[in-house]
Amino acid sequence: LTGITQMQVEAGIPLQICLSRFNRWLQNLQLEKGVTFPNKQQTCSASVSTQKLCTFLTWSDWDLGVCLQYECKRKQLLKPEVLNNWIDLRSTYRLFYNRKPKGLNGALQDLGIQFSGREHSGLDDSRNTARLAQRMMRDGCVMKITRSLER
């Protein structure tokens, strides 16, 4: 389904190391690019309006709201707090266009965009999700955090 082989899985790094490296990369990104990852309450705040706001964008809540959440709990790992807020593009798409797409590929097709690459490949899905979000913003959609795991 994903194209990931068993050999790639075995050569991979543990989730704890991955999250640590990812967090370090995010911190460097924030310093170098000046981006801010706001929590859900801060998105409407005037104090962050002059900053470069950034958040994660997913197609559904599965990856960040279920899969990563469960895996971190199971392995007793701390995940970067910035992964507690994101935009679910699927629900944003439904609300903005008032229709329910048949998956990411279906949403792209609805807008006349050809899916590029292989479905369910993480990198290809990410790129296509970004292309869809760009199109939606060109069509006037304002992206807002749709899900927060913060209390």
TrEMBL record:
Highest taxon listed in the record's lineage: Eukaryota
Any one GO molecular function term: nucleic acid binding
Coiled-coil region: none
The entry's keywords: Exonuclease, Hydrolase, Nuclease
Entries under CDD domains matching the protein: ERI-1_3'hExo_like
Protein name: ERI1 exoribonuclease family member 2
Organism whose genome encodes this protein: Nothobranchius furzeri
One Pfam family cited in the UniProt record for this chain: RNase_T
Exonuclease domain: residues covered: 52-132
InterPro entries with a match to the protein in the record: 3-5_Exoribonuclease, ERI-1_3'hExo-like, Ribonucl_H, RNaseH-like_sf, RNaseH_sf
